[in-house]
Amino acid sequence: MNQSYNDIVDKSIQDIRAALLGDLYLFFYYMYTSVQGVKPQIPQPPGRENHFKTCFRAIQEVIEGKRGPVLMLNIAPRYGKTTMCVYAMAWCYAHNPRANNIYASFKKTLSSEKTEELRGILNSRAFKVFFDARISKSSSAKDNFLTEQGGRTIAVGADGSGLGSGAGTADKELYGGAIFIDDMTKAQDAHSAAMRDNVRRVYSQTLVNRRNDPETTKIICVGQRISQTDLPGMLLDGVEGSALDNYQEDWNRNKVALPCLDESNNALWPDKHNKQYLLDLKHNDRFTFFSQMQQEPISDSNRIFDVDRIILSSEEPNIIDTFIVCDTAETADRVNDASVFHMFGVYECMYKRSKTGETGLHSISCYETRVEPQDLLEEFELFYTSCSRHRVRPSRVYIEKKSTGGMLLGFLRDRQGLMVIDILRNANDKIGSYATHGPKVERFKKAAPYVAKSLLSVTLGAEHQKMMLDHLNNITFSMTQKHDDIADTIADGISIALIDRLIYNNSIMSYENDVVDKVSSINASRRR
What we know:
This protein is α/β, with parallel strands linked by helices. Helix content is 38%, strand content 17%.
């Protein structure tokens, strides 16, 4: 890979052919320029090698058998991954007209467009001058065509349909073709469990079994990372503790992941995404930044709540005030959500014995029960009695106003010493009510940043700790979880205490304390 485009343009056909066969990056640059009539747009990032060279070097090494049977290539969207696949397939045909390639992407029409582009390269005058592969005159399809020498290219979508033959050659030839997997899942489907399961099945039941020779047919998976459980994640980390194929160690050993920002904040392609854009994205949309841009997906973006950020306190913080949130169920049927009673406490966050100015929300107790509506009052009384033993007794109870919640509200309205407030969904605020608007997923998303900032805590070893954390781990953007009753109470608790600050407002209290301190100081000076 030491020669450049300018080094070979005036050489003989044989010398140019030898140079192109020996260097995939040079082959791409020369053929692209010849076929398209313009030179490819290649970035020149400060302090970094351009990623086309890095990626083509890795692809060449795996095709030539120098890097193992598989290659994982992760890079940001619109950075040329698909073009790399197309020219890598063309390079295989330059070496071996009998090559068999499978090109798979999330959509069959897109796959077909790219294999049609491959046809265009093989039919170009520039390719025909140097290489022997010719498309069969009997092959007119753009998604499944033959070469005159017996090679084939097939385009497939995420459903895996249309695969009638395999990739590679049966007689262990080098450059015999490969399976190219290019972004099998759209970024918009990152939160779809059904789509991820489909892609997993297509890979494990179809694609991986289409190698004409498992020893020499390579699998090259290229794509942006969109979640921890996308196809690259499943190949690298397995699924529920089991490897997706026999190459998990090879996938991890032969992984090329190129972040848009390196450790020195040098941008990979400044003309596409400059340093400031990327730093702003990191601040404003950390999921997209770390997954699609950095290829290091953090806590699966399909999970709404970053459970790892919940503080597990060795002891309960200094609780200032407490309240209860109730989410009642319509029936005792286990298929439906349970009724949940959740006691929270608010406290001032501390760092190195100093107040930070933030208010924290502590989950003190959480009780989940499945009973018929007529039994709810008795269950609540038992829960409230246990909560009343806390040193800061709850004086407010928030209950979602629906049929069963309405019944409980009616029972508790006349109870002395207890303020009962109904939670309204998609309704106007009114005296004695608290309204939280929008679909459930939007309420969860609104609460999620407060969890991510570690403003939610629970005492380590509390009876409900595991139940609560396991429950939150299952809450997804696609809302595919079986139950979300506990998450409902947490979202409401965060909204009440941290967003609207209806329980305790530390900024107001700090101001009031300052006033008290000043008055006390004045009175003290007068007494002197």
